[in-house]
Amino acid sequence: MRIKNPGLTVILSAVILAAAGVFFRDFNYTIAGFFISGILLLNYHYILLNLKRAALAAEINRSLDKKFVRRGEVVEISASVTVPGDYPFDITAEDVIPAGTEMFTGSNTCEIKGSGSVRYNVTCLAHGSISPAGIRLNLGGFFFSAGILIPEGGRDDITVFPSLKFSDAKSRLFGGKEVDRILPIKGSGIRDFREYTYTDDMRSIDWKVSAKQGKLFIREYTGIEGEGDMFIVDLPDVEEYGRDIEPLKGVVGSVISSGDYRDKVLVRISGCNLVGIRRIRSGAVPVKNILNDIGPSVRDVHMYRYRTGNIRGDLTDRYSEVKSAFSGYERAYSFEEEIFAIFEKNNPGGIKIMTGGTGDLSHIGVIAKAASKRGIKTHCCIPKDVGFEENLRNLRQFKFDILEAL
């Protein structure tokens, strides 16, 4: 039950008028004070009586668009409240936001004129079972207002599983009691947890977390800070920039031969096109054999920009422009997903990006941003060729930890 200072209003009215009666030596003021206080007290109890009557007669229907989600996802909650009968006061309903969620969009309040409904979206902040707290009916009169909560425990629960997205502040495992404290459950050196796949090492399975969640989860360990666990080579276009392959090979050979490249991952891209992924299993593999994989490739569409002429066939310029822009955006998004999937699968402690530094470099920015979100150190190298100073200036916008020309 929630009241806006009813007792204080009644007491102040009685005290003020009683004091006036004593001051003016006229007990009519005192009698008037008690009379007004009695009216206010009756009004207060009349509001409570109507509020309890409305709460007993209220019918609540609730629906959720999803009952099984992952942490960080949005759930749409809708509820309708029907209060039969006539009431001399205004009634409003407030759907209490469930614990472990936060309001995303919409409104959780409505006026009740026989019936009313609310519809809003919440973001699930902690995994586990989240239950609606209930509907609060608020009744407001001229002097007082009061509210009463109609609980709904155990109805329409939302089951929230841990998020499997890339590591950030909203995608880690949380304890059942840690709804308000944003603290991940991790051991020393563990970056995050994710679901087990058939290609993972069973020795990385965390059996305690797996037993709690009912699924197999593996531990993802942090890499050595600053160590280049992954090499990403941006290959030139086979048609336009094939002549730039030799300077790029020089950079790749210099980077690989400068350290221990055993058990490293070599990712070859050409613009937005993911050409191939190779794990260097042994340090006995000659560098020249690795360089044989470095060659011009078909460069995919540019990201965040469009160019006319990408669509084959006799189409109007406007249609070609719109279609090209849409295709570029669609491909850019899928390329970003591919990068996150590579990072999640291999979990590098650091990456070394090698590119010619020419042409559209939006895809390099996407890689740098994805690495920054996972806390991965980035090291970018370009050939020390003609015009490399301008290329360095263009690449500085992506805020690499290390940017150099070799």
TrEMBL record:
**Keywords for this entry?**
Membrane, Transmembrane, Transmembrane helix
Q: Transmembrane helix among the record's keywords? A: yes
The keyword rRNA-binding is assigned to this record: no
TM segments?
7-24, 30-49
Q: Where's the DUF58 domain?
A: 192-243
Give the protein name, as stated in the record. DUF58 domain-containing protein
**Native organism:** Methanoplanus endosymbiosus
